[in-house]
Amino acid sequence: MQIKIHRGINQIGGCVTEIKTKSTRILIDIGSNLPNSTSKVKVNVAKISKKCDAVFITHYHLDHIGEYMQVKKDIPIYIGEQAKEIFTIYQKKMQEPKVAEVTQEHIDRLETFKTFEQDVPLKIGDMTLTPIRVNHSAFDSYMFLIEAEGKRVLHTGDFRTHGPSGETIPKALKEIGKVDVLICEHTTLSRLDEVFMSELMLQKEAVDLIKNNKYVFIMCASTNIDRIASFYHANEEAGKKLFICDVYQKEILDYVTKTSKKYKDYYNFSNVKSFDKKFYQEMLDNGFCMLVRSNYFSKRFINSPNFKDNIFIYSQWLGYLQGSTADESIVKFVPKDYHYLHTSGHATKEGITEVCNIVKPNVIIPIHGENSHDFEKLKLPYKTKHLKNKKSYNI
To answer: Taking Cα atoms as reference points, which of 192, 88, 84, 91 lies closest to residue 139?
Structure first.
């Protein structure tokens, strides 16, 4: 078996990994570079996917799926069922004028995507691939266990153990046991001085903010379902103000509610309302929580003199507001006086160490991190080969 990292070493995002045997060849993730990325690594996805048997997507963030239109239509692309639908809703929103260059052709290609089931192995040629659902800031995200030619490879995608279902990852990996190669994200290892709260801790802090402020505006990614759930449940605990969003966001949350009943009520957003004029007086009198984005709909409320005594909670990466990675539209939209309440969608040092200690790989291939030498910081208690800058490896 051969593993080749076409892109993803010493950079965050833009991930493209190839795994092949003598008779079978797959790609895992076909990501675009992140906006303002300094990466000079170019990948011709159309060329390298031409003779693939299949492409597997860990999750719907563009730095993992963004090049999907470069894959020929006769090459099957696999993704989680809920991830496919959420990404389709998102892409349809991106069809709007002045939003993004998404056409009907993009939507048509998405509809051809195949889906897999959690923990159900798929046979692709002489490979067996098992999807393992993980917690991340993208809903319905997966690790993949690939078995072929007597070898076992675990590709983590993006994951975290400090999310609401993060404890399921160690449990699942204990059943898998030892692997030969671990292809592992390490986004946070370059910033060990940063403190990461759990999603539950974030929710508890949000309860106090909602209780103590009548009008609450919340900016977070529309597809970060766990973050929305944190604020939604915080609002329920704080006193059940109206929880408001726009029609696009409501469509996503309605879909998640309908398809996530096995998680009991955690992803039940049935009390979320899309804005209607009939709610206005109740909003004015009793207060509200509103999910906002940098658009006209949100600006109307934030700038309204009727809601001037408000709190604006910013719950996204600070890099969108600061430095070379700043997004101009977000910088203009977010008020100077905002409350920052956020935690990473990526594994902490402790989470990565726990995964490594469970599967005890012979080889670790670092991806999705700024410096592939970061794994030296883990000081693992067993012998393993750390490939660092090596892009190709034969098992």
So the answer is: 84
Q: What is the CATH architecture assignment of 2-191+346-394?
A: 4-Layer Sandwich (3.60)
Q: How many CB atoms lie within 10 A of CB 332?
A: 9
Give domain limits for the chain: 2-191+346-394, 199-340
pLDDT digits (tens, 9 = 90+) for 63-101: 999 999 999 999 999 999 999 999 999 999 998 876 778
In which residue are the tokens 């190709």 written? 392
Which residue has 């490939």 as its token pair? 387
Burial class for 325, CB neighbours closer than 10 Å (0-12, 13-18, 19+): middle
Residue 124, H or E segment: strand 122-124
Give the whole-angstrom CA distance, residue 118 versus residue 372: 30
CATH code assigned to 199-340? 3.40.50
* Closest CA relative to residue 382, chosen from 355, 366, 362: 362
The Cα diameter of the chain in Å comes to: 68
pTM: 0.95
- Between CA 262 and CA 268 the distance in angstroms is 10
Residues 6+ apart with CB under 8 A from 60: 79, 83, 84, 86, 87, 90, 138, 223
pLDDT digits (tens, 9 = 90+) for 11-22: 999 999 999 999
For residue 16, count other CB atoms closer than 10 A to its CB. Answer: 24
DSSP secondary structure, 321-349, as one string: TSGGG--HHHHHHS-SS-EE----SS--H
How many other C-beta atoms lie within 10 A of the C-beta of residue 206?
26
Sign of CA dihedral 263, 265, 266, 269: positive
What span, in angstroms and rounded, lies between the C-alpha atoms of 221 and 227?
A: 8
